Amino acid sequence: MDFVSPIVDVAARLWACTAKRVTYFRRLSKNMKILRSAMDELKSVYKDVTERVEREEKLQKKRTRSVENWIRSVEAMEREVRQILEEGDEEVQNKCSGTCCPRDPCDRYKLGKALPRKIRAVVALRNKVDHFQDVAVPLPNPLVIERPLEKIVGLDSPFLEVWRLLRSEQVGIIGIYGMGGVGKTTLLKKVNNNFLKPSHDFDVVIWIVVSKPTTLEKVQEALRNKLEIPDGRWKNRSEDEKAAEIFSVLKTKKFVLLLDDIWEPLDLLKVGIPVLSTHRNKSKVVFTTRSADVCRDMEAQRSIKLECLAWEESLTLFRTRVGENTLNSHPDIPKLSEIVVRECKGLPLALIIVGRAMAGARTPQDWEKKIQTLKNYPAKFPGMGDSLFPVLAFSYDSLPDEAIKSCFLYCSLFPEDYEISPPHLIELWIGEGFLEEYDSIQEERNQGEEIIERLKDVCLLESGRSQKQEYLKMHDVIRDMALWLASEHGKKENNFLVKDQVGLIRAHEVKKWNEAQRITLWESRIEELREPPCFPNIETFFASGKCMKSFPSGFFVNMHVLRVLDLSNNYELVELPVEIGNLVTLQYLNLSKTSVENLPVEIKNLKILKCLILDNMNSLQPLPSPMLSVLSSLQLFSMFNSPYKGDHRTLLEDLEELEYINDLSLDLTSVSSAQALFNSHKLQSFTRRLRLFNCKCMNSVRLSPYIEMLHISFCHAFKDVQISLEMGGLQYSKFPRQECCLYYLCHVYISWCSKLLSLTWLVHAPNLKFLSIDDCGSLEEVIEVEKSQFLAIDLNFNLFSRLISLSLINLPKLRNICRWNQSFPSLREITVLGCPRIKKLPFDFNTGMNKNLEKIIGEQEWWDGLEWENKDFMLNLTPYFRTTQSSKRLEFPFVPLQDRQISRFFQVPLGYVDV
User: Fold this and answer.
1) What is the pLDDT of residues 513-558, one digit of tens each?
2) Is 448 left (phi over 0), alpha (psi -120 to 50) or beta?
3) CA-to-CA distance for 538 and 525, rounded, in angstroms?
4) CA distances (Å), 620 to each of 443, 463, 624, 689, in order?
5) Are 334 and 325 in contact (CB under 8 A)?
6) Which of 173, 424, 596, 837 sits at 20 to 30 Å (Cα–Cα) from 453?
7) How far apart are CA 840 and CA 819, in angstroms?
8) How many whole angstroms separate alpha carbon 654 and alpha carbon 630?
9) To which H or E segment does residue 9 belong?
10) In degrees rounded to 5, what are phi and psi of residue 634?
11) 534, burial (CB in 10 Å: exposed 0-12, middle 13-18, buried 19+)
12) pTM for this prediction
């Protein structure tokens, strides 16, 4: 029976194998049903997962690799299962007719065998979903994120400059500054988007809007997000620890950090930015701000001031906003559009806002109405009061105190495009009491100059220069914004009233001024009034120009809180109303350039008057004594370029009695009056400007260290200067012992002093800016010492290093300006006429290379005869030369520019007129 066991074993194995295969046949339909059900469940889960992934991707996230692989596996599995199920359905339907046997047992077997495996695979895929913690993760930050940007007009030049500096290894920090709305952010966006091009080697470009208030935490958080510093190294860390994390990332990269809208200095090292001067990767920081101070405080190696657009660029930008359809809707509209563009004065934001507002105006009548609104009531123009002015006002809001804010708003009292004299403006501020923290006028002037510089630095004031005189201006749109602020955002329209060239002002208009705080009239006059007007709140009144011949009767009666009265530049005004004496709150009175002959005696009632200015008053009669001496609060008295007809010694005696006087400008016409001034230590030490005219026998002049302006003319015996030192001793001009003893002297004008041989004493005037000498027939040298002698005086400055203008006219014996060459780094203009013996200019090779020099004026014959050490030097200076055909002149008493109110209404010639 031994042979039976193997047979049974084989039979058992065959049965097991056969039974298993039979099971595949028998369970085919059931397994297909199970697979179909499992696949349906998997597809439902697949749909949930893909929808979740899509939601995350819309949030700028990226699906994980495991999820991506799972989705691909499910999609592949779906295709495979679909094929198996199709084959199974076909197998079930294709049985032998009349039986349950398959036509192809082999295929059915293979199919039945594959189904369980596929079921297990589908279930496994389904179960994988339970292990997904996240289906997507945040996208890695790109090298640079593109910033939305509209069509740009007029920024090509500053953009190229910034891009050039970004490529320079010598520059690490670049500051872009300018007034609000000028296009700083637009320029920075253009720089940012240019990094989308592959033509650079920076690893990362980071954009951060800093804005107000500036916080270290805000900037660090923005950097953390860009640099993808993980939570574990960031949360619950101190500022220093966060800075260290930022530093550890950035020190390995070559980066560009773009900081937009900085209002106060940001300490980059505290943020975590590596020191760029030592950073081996040559990274860059570029920032925008409204303040030049921020550029300095952040140690920008280059500061770029963004200016308003030129005319053609302004017109292009405006017309793109208006649209061609509107511009072409009537032939008059293109010309009218030019009027609107002029009102915006090149400020891009204003052009954009006004352009949008004009886009719907399709008739000339609509344009004309809106132009009148823009000119006369700009705050009511669409978009100005609610969009433009609030943006610009951020600069005003950021001013540090109310005094500076008041000083800024005050500048809006001048007309559009008015050239404001800085000294005149500061004196007005003093009269208003804006600067009364200080005891002396000089200290208040210093504070006023600091305020002007601050307002210029934050681009709320602009500086300029005409005919050697520096002036201030307000951009028209900034001025409109200032008037809007002064009117409390339009709620008090007549708070600041400025009437410019309106001709005759009718009585009914004057009645509307009763709530005004400040009124200024320019080239305008008031008709006779039936009854005195009432101005209960008025603190400031200007009336300037040629139109005001007199004031209506009782005009000043009801001005009970008036502090500042400026009637200057009214040449036809010959008499003051006596009620001015009732203005007991008055602190500032300016009658310069009027034809007033007599001051009413009632002026002695002005007990708190602080400033009295009587410059350029050719008709003024002697002041009745004791008018001045009873003005007990007077600190500033100016009678400059006014040919006083009384006894100057009496005037000086009255001034001597004033306890608080500390700022004098005097015009003296006799040796005795000059000597009286020189003998008064008090008056001389307070004399800021001195004009000596026709003092024929005066051979020397005694100067105080505090003198700022000196004008000497027709003093034929004048030869030299004595300098009064503070200790009371006198030193002659050549070698005073006290260093820089004429530190404040800025302006010197010498004419018709026939015995004058030199002005060597000027070596002790380090801040000399303007020097004019004419018709001094004996003058041979301006500075007659050798360079070695000059150096031996041990002065800590270079001679003429701050000189802006030099004028030498009709000096037949003049051989030298000085005996050695100077660089003249500040020089803008030099005039040499009627000086045939000057054969060499004292310029070194750097003169003209500093971009300040504008012109050299002289006769062609003189220029051609000059001797040059180097021909290249002559070629460098030749483009600046301007020839003049004649030096014949009409002589008249000189009026220094420093004392003129620069205006478009009146200009005094500069000492001569070509004929």
Assistant:
1) 989 999 999 988 888 888 888 899 999 999 988 777 888 888 899 9
2) alpha
3) 18
4) 30, 34, 11, 19
5) no
6) 173
7) 10
8) 9
9) helix 4-26
10) -65, 130
11) middle
12) 0.81
